[in-house]
Amino acid sequence: MQLELRGITKRFGALVANDHIDLVVEPGQIHALLGENGAGKSTLMNVLFGLYRPDEGEIVVDDEPVRFTSPGDALAAGIGMVHQHFMLVPVFTVAENVMLGHEPTRRGGSLDLESARTLVRDVAHRFGFDLDPDAVVEDLPVGVQQRVEIVKALARDAKVLILDEPTAVLTPQETDELIEIMRQLRDAGTSIVFITHKLREVRAVADVITVVRRGRIVGTAEPTAAENDLAAMMVGRDVSLQVDKAPPQVGDVALEIDDLTVVDALGTRVVDGVDLSVARGEIVAVAGVQGNGQTELVETVLGVRSAVAGSVRLDGTELLGRSVRDVLDAGVGFVPEDRTEDGLVADFTVAENLVLDLVHDTRFRHGLALDLAAIGANARERIAEYDIRTQGPGQAAGKLSGGNQQKVVVARELSRPLRLFIASQPTRGVDVGSIEFLHRRIVAERDQGTAVLIVSTELEEVAALADRVAVMYRGKVVGIVPGDTPRDVLGLMMAGVPLDEAQRQAEDHPTVETLIEEGDQP
Amino acid sequence: MSDELVGDVAAAPPPTPPRDEPSSEEQASSWLRRVATGGFGVTVLSFVLAFVIGAVLIAAVDEDVDDAASYFFSRPGDLFSAAWDAIWSAYSALFRGSVINFEAYTVADALKPLAGTMAQASPLIVAALAVAVAFRAGLFNIGAQGQVTVGATVAAYIGFTYHLPAVVHLPLALAGGIAAGAVWGGIAGLLKARTGAHEVIVTIMLNYVATYLLAWLLTTTAFQVPGSNEPKSPAVDDSAQLPPLFGDRYDVTWGFVVALLGAVVVWWLMSRSRLGFQLRAVGSNPRASRTAGISVPRMTTYVMLISGALAGLAGAVQLLGTSKALTDGVAGSIGFDAITVALLGRSRPLGIVFAGLLYGGLTRGGQFMEVATGTPIDIVLVLQALVVLFIAAPGLVRGVFRLPEPRLVEKSAA
């Protein structure tokens, strides 16, 4: 099936989200739609999927113009979509989720679960992946949940599959698996529209790359194009993907974590005897697959989680057992992993969010009252300094794009003198232009002599920032290695392989990651 | 895909799934926030719709209309004119009883209903402020009723037991009401902060405790008129009463000024103070607040203390301004109506002042309407209920008036 978009324009008030977009998706092709957050990729796909109606332009399927008024129409025309946030019922099984919406019934109206199970097995078998129809969705890892979404679309005979930022929630291994699945689907004749802002993945899997910027198509590229060129097209200017940083001027040890053990509600040791130190003027990155205790480690340092054993000292003062307020006052800046849940109050204005943990500071209050003038002035300064794209200090923070939200959080945390700066996933879901900016700010903070602790699951980020890397696996530190350790070795350590073993294996078996690195196209 | 990769995933602990599915509690609170801060247009249209349905009900229960309906097929015009008469007389009586009595002989008399509305609205506004403060901090204070009851009880006790000059007596009685309400609300706040007990359950239970506590107190000699067995306290001293605002002729007392001051204080607290900033932050996103070093349990306790104090003040205003003596029905339904008024006023102080006046007006006007036209006051209760129903279901109102959906704001255009 050939799918064509002709002159699609979609406006939201004064904002033109899509400006005369033309796009052709050939059968059996992986078509990557590359663009920053807010470039209009998702809007375009929502038009294609019948969620929005275009103001201008038409959708053409096999040379027939079609009109979609609802996702049902799009599904009927053979277009399936896997949303960034899954549309699954967590308490249902895989088979139940797949049949949801067009449940097969036996005579008398009773559900025919068996045929749904068979369908799941058939589809999974046809494309060579593994899925238990009776598993309950909420028990499955995110990567497998995503497979359920894909099967759901395929089970309705989707000929074109739209994947909206599919790798945003995946670990590196899961991403590799997804790439494999996408290739199999393509080989079986399914077209895939792959929406992303991650250059590496695009180059690994796409047949055609279309770059979108500010609602317009700015060009197409071959998958062999260099990352820097793609980034420049996407952002509209040259970006350096590698942070320029001088060798660290390492000072005294600031943060000392000794034998820290944290237990979760189920009694599992999520942080298991961790020893780690961060000196002034260096960046230590904690690398690891999501869910190996990194989050709990930094939350314990902040004091929102309590430890069962060990100690956390900042410049010799014990932090454990103190309130979050005290820890922040001791000179700790904290950027949480999940900015929308933990970093920002979405209903609050940008100005209010920029002082969320600073309103006790006499800079921003007169006695019991807020000093609105100072808060406003602070907001204007931070917005200018961090180039936060907002309609103004009074705009609700929830309305900003992911990158700008993150800039708000980072700007707030760096707006006071710090002894220790902790950032968890500082650039997750952030566009390329902002990543560059945030990385430079973090390095600048290091160069001012602050101890910096970064938690990241992205190897690129670890490689870009870290002076030393601590790899965590199942709550333990597998090893602490220099920042320039090869990606393969880090990847293997993230799977729990000790350093020496990892180095040996990395030489024998290069992984998909390295193949991509070398520009090898499968 | 190779088996080795599958093995890797199985070996690693499952990553935490994205926190996309809000828990039922989060959903409830976002619904609450939407209702509490919904559009102004919908509020107005909800009234229009409620009055239209009210008109049908008025016509339906009217005897003349009923008579005319019996010979509808011979003279259909009679039915419509009878219905029109019934609706017009009922609604004009509602207006005359609540705003301006245009049939009165003097200007002074014509303005009496408005003063009555203000008197009726005073405690309601204060109690609604109490509910709104809690709303905005993410708590649902169903317990305003109990807090009003204890506030009125303590204010009354101070009012009739001690005999002091007015400059001391009245403030003392008001302060007593505030303190009692704060304690009552504070219990719920402290229990939530310390043990996680849900404030809705706790405050509902405390409502019963307050009601029966008052009923029991009224059987004791300390709370009864000497020499009487009636469950009614003596009237409070004149020195403890809220004086009339515009002279004895009008019902409205300084309680209305207290209500307006309360609105100003709440506005300052929520919009301009550091505490209000933290309360609102906790109400909108407790996790981000905790990460920012705000103690959520402490804020929970504070907000229930403040909310309870305001509700206690409402009880004191009702008693010292209107009831004067304590009976078991002293709180009426102020505490529950306050929830409605807070919703109507979209949890904003100015909105609550107007919503309180409106609600007070409907109550006063309804009473007058029943006397003047025989239309049952239940119609007014139905009107009030319908207004809330429509505000809670904005989609329904938009459907009836064929309004467009509010423009979908794209969450994150990627």
UniProtKB/TrEMBL annotation, chain A:
Gene Ontology MF: a single term: ATP binding
Keywords: ATP-binding, Cell membrane, Membrane, Nucleotide-binding, Repeat, Translocase, Transport
Record bears the keyword ATP-binding: yes
CC annotations in GO: plasma membrane
Topology term for the membrane: Peripheral membrane protein
The organism's place on the tree of life at top rank: Bacteria
Protein name: Nucleoside ABC transporter ATP-binding protein
Annotated organism of origin: Luteimicrobium subarcticum
Automatic annotation (TrEMBL), chain B:
Region (Disordered): 1-28
Transmembrane segments: 40-61, 121-139, 146-164, 170-191, 200-218, 252-270, 299-320, 379-401
Membrane topology category: Multi-pass membrane protein
GO molecular function term, any single one: transmembrane transporter activity
InterPro entries assigned: ABC_transp_permease
Keyword Lipid biosynthesis: no
Protein name: Nucleoside ABC transporter membrane protein
Cellular localisation: Cell membrane
Pfam family, one: BPD_transp_2
Major location category of this protein: membrane
Alphabetized UniProt keyword annotations: Cell membrane, Membrane, Transmembrane, Transmembrane helix
